[in-house]
Amino acid sequence: MKILVINCGSSSLKYQLIDMTDESIMAKGLVERIGIEGARIKHETIGKEKKVTECPIEDHKKALKLVMDSLIDAEYGAIKSLDEIAAVGHRVVHGGESFSKSVIIDEDVMKAIEENVEIAPLHNPPNIMGIRACQKLLPKIKQVVVFDTAYHQTMPDESYIYALPYEYYEKYKVRRYGFHGTSHAYVAHRAAEMLDIDFDKVNLITCHLGNGASLTAIKGGKSIDTSMGFTPLEGLIMGTRSGDLDPAILPYIMQKENLNSDEMNNVLNKNSGVYGISGVSSDFRDIEEAQEKGNKRADLALRAYAHRVRKYIGAYFTELDHVDGIVFTAGLGENSPEMRESICKGLEILGIKIDTQKNNVRGKDTVISADDSKVKVLVIPTNEELMIARDTLKLVK
């Protein structure tokens, strides 16, 4: 069975065609700059030459038409007919409280996704556009939606409630939702396999560390707490996002800098994080390079980042009766031995020790903890597309 996975952004579209008989990628690609000058599609069928096509791409419907044409292209394609696609799995960022698992799309589901646009204005609209475009191009094929928030719907109410007047939760559903759920779920399943523990018995702390970053406490295979909140702004220091801060800072700076709420929101989401501290970049590779050259703000940004991650790991230990493993994933978590070492330094009190030699690895499933570490530490490259495909397969079967 072949499943197409679609991940729509506001001006981009990522896709993978996966053969679920062996979970192998048949083709993958990226459509960039949708609705913007210089639009293009980068397509690769595994085992064939990559193809890059620049052309006007007015909207997501045109983008998906290019994807379909690329998949069945006589020279560069992976399949002979679109009829070979059994189902399409879509990533949607916010499902609110409506969804605790993936679902087959119907109009009631679409209505629920649209109702959550208000609390995910940057993410849900392009997700909706992608689904609608796919429905028109592939009207006979089942479509499935996989929510980033769904995995965290198992959090108990003491984990997700905010200390605000309760009526704000009742009227506006202001609560912690958590994100990166598909990634946390994938690496948790993989960690359970690597540790030879039943998934419904495994306790983990998963660290999705990229430009966006979050930690999740997993008890018996279920998310019981996570660092992102009502939006993906809360929690860890990130590439350009502030993460946790004193809320009184906001009106103080707004008054001092004469900023309105939209401008302040822009500061928090796009001008803060390690970029704001370092003044160098939101790319950790650039910051690490500046640190090596003696840039003190770059050094501070990296130390502050590691410090915040350590704090959350320590906090989540108190929510779990034991911890089987700590998992590092996503761009920074998978590819920065230096950051992993920096985070774990100071966690020896919790029985966590990493082996420097084992830690010298990038983008590979492996255990990096020392032999005498009481808690296993793992590196697991995330694979959200495969998790989406697996969920899609279960539902359409």
UniProtKB/TrEMBL annotation:
EC number annotated for this UniProt entry: 2.7.2.1
Site (Transition state stabilizer): residue numbering on this chain: H180, R241
A single MF term (Gene Ontology): acetate kinase activity
Keyword Cell membrane: no
Binding site for substrate: R91
Record bears the keyword Lyase: no
Superkingdom as given in the UniProt entry: Bacteria
Pfam families the record matches: Acetate_kinase
Location(s), subcellular: Cytoplasm
InterPro entries in UniProt: Ac/propionate_kinase, Aliphatic_acid_kin_short-chain, Aliphatic_acid_kinase_CS, ATPase_NBD
Entry GO terms, CC: cytoplasm
Alphabetically ordered keywords of this record: ATP-binding, Cytoplasm, Kinase, Magnesium, Metal-binding, Nucleotide-binding, Transferase
CDD domains linked to this entry: ASKHA_NBD_AcK_PK (cd24010)
SUPFAM superfamilies membership: Actin-like ATPase domain
Cofactor: Mg(2+); Mn(2+)
Cofactor binding annotation: Mg(2+). Can also accept Mn(2+).
PROSITE patterns xrefs: ACETATE_KINASE_1, ACETATE_KINASE_2
Reported function: Catalyzes the formation of acetyl phosphate from acetate and ATP. Can also catalyze the reverse reaction.
Family membership: Belongs to the acetokinase family.
UniProt-listed HAMAP family: Acetate_kinase
Subunit structure: Homodimer.
Protein name per its UniProtKB record: Acetate kinase
Organism per entry: Peptoniphilus lacrimalis 315-B
Name of the encoding gene: ackA
